[in-house]
Design a protein that fits this description.
This is TIGR01244 family sulfur transferase. Residues 150-254 form the FAD/NAD(P)-binding domain. GO terms for molecular function: transferase activity. Residues 2-110 form the Beta-lactamase hydrolase-like protein phosphatase-like domain. The protein is α/β, with parallel strands linked by helices and 557 residues long. It folds into three domains: 4-136, Protein tyrosine phosphatase superfamily (Protein-Tyrosine Phosphatase, Chain A); 149-253 and 408-476 and 528-552, FAD/NAD(P)-binding domain; 257-402, FAD/NAD(P)-binding domain (3-Layer(bba) Sandwich). 27% of the residues lie in helices and 23% in strands. It has 15 helices and 28 strands. Strands 6, 7, 10, 11, 12, 13 and 24 form a seven-stranded mixed beta sheet that branches. Strand 12 and strand 13 (241-249) form a beta hairpin. The longest helix has 20 residues, at 454-473.
Length: 557
């Protein structure tokens, strides 16, 4: 038997035989559902045979036959009713299991999120792309798709989405463009590290989405539920359909707070904070100012994460404050890094190590936060060093700065656009999808091996815009992305190590070394971060003015 569990209560399988039911019962199943009409195949037992054999071993049986490829809404309703009435766990079967998986997916659509359903079916080996509109529509066949159609549809109104919309409009003003994003507020997330250090006010990092959407670009204030690339369609929550000639996918990352046991319940209190959330960054500064002595822990989860330097930036700026107010000798700083290196590009590590030493911080590699007890002020880490058996260690804290695990959004991971790891699958040079020629992706959600930073999106947006315009002209992409990313490592208030690098850790400095040596802490880099980059972000990058971001071109073929 090829049994494929979908949930603890339901599994599906291809055709089973009467003599296999005793084994099913021994495995704990209590009922079967037959979704295959009698006489569909010559080697198929009748339902009457199956029901008699089921009764003999104490299983209940129900007959809900569905013609292959013709699952009706009423069939899904009957399947859902059977799930409620029959004792579980249940095994449903048909010729291949696909009809049973489809019936389950549609029957759960009114109570489960589409991404959860698609994930469960995918994990069982069944692709529900063919019924995704019905799943999004609560399990019902849509009666009115209400299609809207645009030249370019952009999924995500963050740094990448608005920048690429503006860059497209600057190149081709007549393009009919729509940005899909449910958020009311757009955040300058690189500023949150500075909020957590008392340098920026939180409100300076937030503006209304409506004020930033480029003139002439439609803003559809809705979340995306699924993609139908074969139909050039995006399915929105509520089953509205938006069609496109070309699609740009850049919704950012999902911060998976729930992956750390106990974290959600204690965020923002009990000394537990994070600069990865707008509302928590001020609490970081409150804790830093208030800590007179004790244990200060700073965590970094497994890669990839947005702004890989941000976990240690919080540590450096906190240590700098405690040093300046004379408390550093009373504070034990611990950096808990799930990875094995301080920073992924070795040229910047010596300067960073000097500050680790200055703040007397202890580096703990291969330590991944798995649980936190806020009231008890303890954090538990899985320690998985190479070639050694994994262990767990629990440490006390007085304050802890947590960086959550990060993954692609659910609707991306279960989509046809994703690679096996869940990221949008692109060519790392052109940022065009590897399989769908009219789809591009940029920002944190795609799988090119670059740093996930706002500076990377600043470089990527003109490249995607240029290549889309090339595609409209009928020529091959001419703009190439070299993996550029930048991470201004705030090692103390007033000095920054300006890490700029591309694919393979190649250094890609924006300035000659005699102007600004990025491998050393400098005041110039701090001024760039504090005074220059925020207005560049708001007034240039989001408006299609490509300051220091002109695409690198190759000859069109």
């Amino acid at each position: 038997m090829d049994i494929k569990p979908i949930s603890p209560d339901i599994s599906v399988a291809p055709q089973i035989q009467p003599e296999e039911l005793a084994e099913l019962a021994s495995q704990g199943y209590r009922a079967i559902i037959c979704n295959r009409p009698d006489g569909e195949g010559a080697d198929q037992p009748t339902f009457e045979e199956m029901a008699a054999a089921a009764r003999a071993v104490g299983l209940e049986a129900r007959y809900l036959p569905v013609v292959s490829g013709k699952v009706q809404d009423s069939d899904a309703e009957d399947f859902g009713k059977a799930l409620r009435e029959l004792p579980g766990p249940i095994l449903a079967y048909c010729r291949t299991g696909t009809r049973s998986a489809t019936l389950w997916s549609l029957s759960q659509a009114s109570t489960m999120a589409p991404a959860e359903i698609l994930t469960a079916a995918k994990n069982a080996g069944y692709d529900m792309a063919g019924v995704v509109r019905r799943i999004v529509n609560g399990g019902k066949t849509p009666t009115d798709t209400g299609d809207a159609k645009f030249d370019v549809v952009i999924v995500g109104g963050g740094a990448a989405g608005i920048s690429v919309a503006a860059s497209l409009k600057s190149r081709k003003p007549d393009l009919d463009i729509a940005v899909l994003d449910p958020a009311d507020i757009h955040y300058y997330q690189p500023g949150w590290t500075m909020v957590g250090a008392g340098v920026f006010e939180p409100q300076s990092t937030a503006r209304t989405m409506g004020s930033l959407i480029p003139k002439g670009v439609h803003w559809i204030k809705s979340a995306v539920a699924a993609f139908e690339p074969q139909n050039n369609a995006v399915i929105l929550d509520g089953c509205r359909v938006v069609k496109y000639d070309r699609l740009v996918v850049c919704p950012g990352l999902k911060l998976d707070w729930g992956k750390v046991d106990g974290l959600v319940q204690t965020l923002g209190k009990n000394g537990v904070t994070s600069n990865y959330r707008y509302d928590l960054a001020p609490y970081t500064w409150e804790l830093v100012k208030g800590l007179k002595s004790g244990n200060a822990i700073f965590t970094q989860p497994p890669m990839p994460i947005k702004c890989a330097g941000a976990p240690q930036k919080a540590m450096y700026l906190s240590g700098d404050y405690w040093s300046k107010v004379g408390r550093l000798k009373n504070v034990d700083i611990q950096f808990m890094n799930a990875g094995g290196v301080l920073f992924g590009v070795k040229d910047y590590v010596p300067a960073l190590e000097e500050y680790v030493k200055k703040y007397d911080a202890t580096l703990n590699f291969f330590h991944n936060l798995i649980a936190i007890d806020g009231p008890g002020k303890t954090a538990t880490f899985k320690v998985a060093k190479p070639d050694t058996e994994a262990t767990e260690v629990t440490v006390d804290f007085d304050m802890i700065h947590v960086v959550p695990p990060q993954v692609a959004p659910d609707f991306i991971r279960v989509s046809p656009l994703a690679d096996a790891a869940g990221w949008v699958d692109v060519d790392q040079s052109t940022l065009r999808h590897k399989y769908y020629d009219n789809i591009w992706s940029l920002g944190d959600v795609m799988n090119a091996p670059n740093a996930k930073t706002a500076a990377a999106a600043r470089m990527q947006a003109p490249i995607v815009a240029e290549n889309i315009v090339d595609d409209i002209k009928g020529i091959s992409p001419t703009a190439m992305y070299n993996g550029y990313g930048s991470c201004p490592l705030t090692v103390e208030r007033g000095k920054i190590v300006l890490a700029e690098f591309g694919y393979g850790g190649t250094l890609l400095p924006s300035f000659p070394k005699w102007i600004l040596d990025g491998t050393r802490p400098t005041r110039k880099a701090w001024i760039l971060k504090e005074q220059i980059l925020p207005p560049v972000y708001w007034k240039a990058m989001l408006r299609g003015k490509e300051w220091m971001a002109k695409p690198e071109k190759v000859s069109a073929k």
